[in-house]
Fold this protein.
Amino acid sequence: MQKIPAKLKHKTEDFIVEEIGEKWICKISEEFIQPSIELQPATCNLPPEARGFLWCELEKRDIDHFTTIKTIANHLQTTTFQIGYAGNKDKKAHTSQRISLEKPNIKKLQTFQHPNIILKNFKWNKRKIKMGYLDANHFKITLRDIDKKDAIKISSQIRKRTFFPNYFGPQRFGINQGNIKIGKAIIKRNFREAIDLINKDCQVSPTTDSRPPTATLKYLPKKILLMYVHAVQSKIFNDIVSQALEEGLNLKDKGQQSGILAGYKTRFSNGRLGEIEQEVLDMHNIELEDFDIQEIPFLRTKGSFRKAITKIEELEVETEDDEEFPGSKKIILEFTLPSGTYATTFLENFFIFN
């Protein structure tokens, strides 16, 4: 299928995300205005032991997740660790999600005002919101500056989709797939090569003194080093899913619904899928034991699984004239995806963003 060019996130309101939890859905406001922060009498009358965490909805526009959390924490004169959330949301977007505030100063909270952040719908709870509490996200995305003929054709193809490959996006692999090259050097114990590649990549600059290479690598933040190893896992996963689909395997069948994130304790799937997993590892010149990086223990990776394909729920597709780019069309998509799945991964099946 030929992909077509389109503009993504031309305007903030072109990318709307509403978080869905087990017992909530966070809707965006019709007007982006901070309401008066008032706690419902019923919740104020709860006993002190039930008031450990104040849950509320966080709505934001044109501001990144971590800046938002830090802004709220600074206003409440607390730490970011006392603010719980189930997932990160995009910067250039209009998003709504549930957060928890641990024993907040109510008077300070009631004075909160920010042009890009709204706090609303408060309720006391005994527990902190954590990663994993999120079930899904509902998206409303507008893609712009699309050729009229292309818009009709691609809209028809999108409507027919019920599943899509759950690939990792290219941003995980770095520029020119540099993260993969560094990750492979690390898991193959070519630590000097890894250091040279990291310095060349210019993302971070470890010192290159008389210490052995393992000590130099340990000098780097754990998150950075894990990112390189995860890039290798992600590339292997993408290649397995791609090969399986190319061969016509039905990844909706039981036993084939998940792909491996390779590690030293990984067990291959049964049948042809398991053969493909082994073939892809061979293609990358990697063995499962390579992930048992005992020289840097926090990089030892047992392995896990990831859904090979993702189901699209509540899909709606509309095509309209684009008021921002006269003579072009815009496509408005609404759909729901399970947590951990990016909307851009779905969109990249159809569009090239410019």
Q: What stands out?
A: The first strand starts at residue 4 and ends at 8.
